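Title: Request for sanity check on Peptidase S8/S53 domain-containing protein prediction

Description:
We are preparing a figure and want to confirm that the structure record we downloaded matches what your pipeline produces today. Could someone re-run it with the sequence below and paste the raw structure tokens into this thread? We only need the token string, no images.
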Amino acid sequence: MRQQDDFDDLETVPYPGYPWAVLFKVRPEFLDEQPGGSNERLPPALENLQGDLQEMFGEVIVQHRMKTVSPEKLRELQAYASVALRELHRRQAESVQWQSNSLLASLFAQTYEPAEAERAPDLLAYYFVETDGEDRAIAIQEFLQGRENFIEQTFVQAPPGPLPNSVEDLQHYLDASNAHIASFGGAYVGLNVRDAWAAAGGSGDRVRIGLVENRWNTQHRDLNATQMNDGYASCPRVAGVPATTINAEIRHALQTLGVLIAQHDAQDCTGIAHGTVVHLASSWRCDNSNVQDVADAIAALLDKGLGVGDILLLEQQYTWQGSHRPVETIPDALAAIQLATQLGVTVIEPAGNGSGPSNNRQGRNLKLYSPFSAPNPPDSGAVIVSASKAPLSAGSLERYPTANYGDRVNCFAWGENVTTLTTGDDVTFSYSETSAASAIIAGAAAVIQSVVAGMTGVPLSPAQLRTLMSDPAYGEDGRALGIGVMPDVGRIVTALGA
């Protein structure tokens, strides 16, 4: 049975009563005072700051953002990030399989090491305080900005915004052309991934996918429990959260899992990378705060072994005053994404789902938002994904109305009519917007990366994979719309000689 979900608008405040947070980054010279062996103890300068905050604002507690991974392990990860890509490029140079393939040769020739200014900031530098309400959060931020002698950056983090609504189809986003589907008005243009499954590694079985959602329920007849690992210190919040929010978030995560790893069998759907293993982490962490922490979730996945050649899908966006933005808007999330890419993990990140009331949201140019508005914005290394309407034929491409866009966007995929799994062992026609598109691109990335690893014994770097997937020579070109390129996986796999 196929079902179309009835997605009513969620509450304007899906997490009523949950706190605001003010993040801040400590200058490097004060990190030398950080006590070893504990994420809880504060450097002396911050103990003094906490006293000043409490004198001004009452019971305010300064907390470290990194709660799951020990300082020692974080330092190990950050030290390895300085050499991981160099080691990958050395292995690529030693591989002989690429020498007879011009596409692989051109990709492997693209060696990349981040400039010093782009190296991942120290995640141990980020702290936060919880508070009630936007006005109070802004007042605390202004107070902290007055301590610029040892605070380098501040950021106000709002409570989680509502998940976007969803909308109908079959899995034609997997196809290249389906001219026989007369009832849908002609040929569809999609990923062209079905033929790639026959290649060695074509099911994605040579890579892993890390997935950050709010919460999940992995119970579905078309999911294989052995392909899902959720041991990453995740504690989705329940207290005070409306049932509509919880149910929508569970559906959202199950729809993502369906796009990625639904079984390749005779029932329900087939996941794009149905042979891979997905490692699940929630942006709600197991600590005493009620503030989402995407950076800590990323660090937990890296700590547990997500590494060179793997894919990390961040099904998150940051919501501020009605506008939905890429999650790297949050400074420590940006730092964690940079760390992941410098460790060889390709990060897939939604561009976000526009601004305005839920019944009239419109996509916005990312240049309107920090950090993309800066004269020389930092490159996180992530593949940023926008969304299109379901293209009915080549040349009929339209941006999905709520999808953000701009020069920083690398790729797009369908943002409507995405058929996938849903609750109750059922199938839905209605996964949509940049969440659906990012899941599709993550699946495509896993297949391509797995095929390359199967051919050469060594994967592409994140920069090489991003270059390939955003090359209009190997996909549907949406750059004129500000949405990047939708990769043609079959064409890429053929060009690789698989």
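Thanks, this matches our download. The chain has two domains: 2-12+160-496, 20-70+120-157.
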